[in-house]
Amino acid sequence: MVRLYTTELNIGYGERSIVKNLSVNIPDKKITAIIGSNGCGKSTLLKAITRIIPHQGGAVVLDGEDIAKENTKLLAKKMAILPQTPESAAGLTVGELVSYGRFPYQKGFGRLTTRDYEVIDWALEETGTKDFKFRAVDTLSGGQRQRVWIAMALAQETDIIFLDEPTTYLDMAHQLEVLELLQKLNVEQQRTIVMVLHDINQAARFADHLIALKDGEVVKTGSGEEVICPEVLKQVYSIDAAIGRDPRTDKPMCITYDLIKA
């Protein structure tokens, strides 16, 4: 089933075109990873799909409606986004930050209701951050902070969560912790997860569906088996990759690679 898709999407900054005539489907209740080299348009695509930036042509369609025409609060009840570098939460406690996820549901003076507090506590519980509720966000480790931001997205109660490089600046253990949390949300709560990832082995391990971009255009979409292969990686990254199998998951894995020189 596909609730969210783009048709001939064009995105640019001024005269510069970043994404060109891009049409992709985002499978519902699955994990989708967008991969590609630096500057290929991954983050730009994510921002356009979530209406953070406008697009110059084509459409982003969710539940049969063009999101460009959707009411902002209504759209915020359907999709949440965790940007690559979240805004500073200096001076906020964890509970206060997570409460911002309830903004689409607030009316009048924006006071939190009993229902809001219940959802906030649930989001903290699901992300393993309840013990931090009254701690300042800026006193937490990188992995803890990332889980708190995910809790804020969960508190938004959306079916779809977008994340732009959620493992950036995290060590190996915290990267795995965050990705396993997202996988848990997908499996146990049927959340649709869409994320930009730099690590292709993480993408192959955790994503059901991959979108490989180069210069703002789709090179290949499909499963890890279809995308993480020498031919596609040669086109996307200009590398000669040796692909094996992950001994624990049996997913495709880039073991080593060489640059392909012009």
Automatic annotation (TrEMBL):
GO biological process, one term: iron ion transport
PROSITE patterns found in the cross-reference section: ABC_TRANSPORTER_1, ABC_TRANSPORTER_2
Gene3D superfamilies, sorted: P-loop containing nucleotide triphosphate hydrolases
Subcellular location as annotated: Cell membrane
GO MF annotation list: ATP binding; ATP hydrolysis activity
Protein name: Iron-dicitrate ABC transporter ATP-binding protein
Keywords: ATP-binding, Cell membrane, Ion transport, Iron, Iron transport, Membrane, Nucleotide-binding, Transport
GO cellular component, one term: plasma membrane
Residue ranges of domain ABC transporter in the record: 2-240
Lineage: Bacteria, Bacillati, Bacillota, Bacilli, Bacillales
UniProt-listed InterPro entries: AAA+_ATPase, ABC_transporter-like_ATP-bd, ABC_transporter-like_CS, P-loop_NTPase, Siderophore_ABC-ATPase
Superkingdom to which the source organism belongs: Bacteria
Main location: membrane
Span of the signal peptide: none
